[in-house]
Amino acid sequence: MSVKEMKRILVTGAVGQIGSELTMALRARYGGENVVASGHRTAPGPELRDSGPFEFLNVSQRETLEAVVDKYAIDTIYHMAAILSATGEERPHLAWDVNINGLYNVLEVAREREMARLFCPSSIAAFGPETPQIDTPQETVLRPTTMYGVTKVAGELLCNYYVKRFGLDVRGVRYPGIISSETLPGGGTTDYAVAIFYEAIKHRRYTCFVREDTVLPMMYMPDCIRATLMLMEADVDQLVHHADFNLAGLSFSAGELAAEIQKHLPDFVCEYAPDFRQQIADSWPRTIDDSAARAEWGWQPQYGLAEMTTDMLEKLGQKHAEGTL
Ligand SMILES: NC(=O)c1ccc[n+]([C@@H]2O[C@H](COP(=O)([O-])OP(=O)(O)OC[C@H]3O[C@@H](n4cnc5c(N)ncnc54)[C@H](O)[C@@H]3O)[C@@H](O)[C@H]2O)c1
């Protein structure tokens, strides 16, 4: 596959949990003017708005995507716009439209313009109840039971098809649940692992929507951003996989997370009231084997539970003190 330089980048879903921090990291690396942030309906915060171009577009409406791509002569897309697992179960038709039709539009617009590179993330939601839950292998059963998972499996297959059939350089990882302190998550099943920190700081109390013994694969945002940039800058000749890399950070139960927070805030109380998201969580892996990512592009996570908890509480504590939480 020929290697083209990434010069003008578009981030879709740039107002979202990952997109907002990814855009700032890309702007720091490639220059603010060279990284166009795009959102759907939600207005960007001042940092995102003032550090480079911002546009609204709807990935399901191809012409709105094309207009932005052509206006800025975009050659690289980080496609972060999506409907996540919990929202996807409440609005399955919308999840299909955004995650499948939106992805197809992104791939087609990129193919037609012979773009340099594309990042299209998948998720641990691509797995299902028949997948081995411990050290889930790279190559395994992909039979998800959520609409979100169905769109992620189809998306991986579609992206890999574009690599083989059209020589388009599409890359992607199966993100675990992402924990972060800047932008709240947008309707996923692992949102409790973020909400627990906010509630611990604000009210010293949290009611968790999965059981105490629920273990899921997670990752702290700095690792997530580093993994994304690493994969996109990896030597394409070293890649055997393309849009479906397993990616691991850390795994812990909801109870272990609460106990770690209690080490810092001894009066923090966590209660458990599982809702429909428990069933989704039960269908996902507990730990992930990411040896392909380690071998093909040198992936290694940096944050464990203790480091992440300390950093989250410090960052959110500061915001709380400033009155911005
Ligand atoms: N955050 C996680 O824990 C996690 C885990 C696994 C995979 N992922 C994947 O990573 C990517 C980014 O996720 P995130 O957590 O930042 O999601 P998010 O929900 O925080 O952000 C997604 C953004 O997409 C936008 N969007 C929705 N419909 C759109 C449309 N029609 N056109 C344009 N934009 C639209 C939303 O406004 C939102 O800002 C997604 O593909 C998601 O499936 C995330």
3D architecture notes:
With 325 residues, the protein is α/β, with parallel strands linked by helices. The protein folds into two domains: 9-177 and 220-246, NAD(P)-binding Rossmann-like Domain (Rossmann fold, 3-Layer(aba) Sandwich); 178-218 and 249-288 and 300-322, Alpha-Beta Complex (UDP-galactose 4-epimerase, domain 1), CATH 3.90.25. The chain is built from twelve helices and 14 strands. It has helices at residues 17-30, 46-50, 62-71, 85-90, 92-112, 147-166, 192-203, 221-233, 254-264, 277-282, 291-297, 305-322, and strands at 9-12, 35-39, 54-56, 76-79, 117-119, 122-123, 170-171, 173-175, 177-179, 205-208, 215-220, 245-246, 250-253, 269-272. It has a six-stranded parallel beta sheet with strand order 3-2-1-4-5-7, sandwiched between helices. Strand 1 (9-12), helix 1 and strand 2 form a beta-alpha-beta unit. The radius of gyration is 19 Å and the shape is globular. The model has no long low-confidence stretch (mean pLDDT 97). Bound molecules: nicotinamide-adenine-dinucleotide. Residues 12-13, 15-19, 39-40, 42, 58-60, 80-82, 84, 98, 102, 121, 123, 175, 177-178, 185-186, 188, 190 line the site of nicotinamide-adenine-dinucleotide.
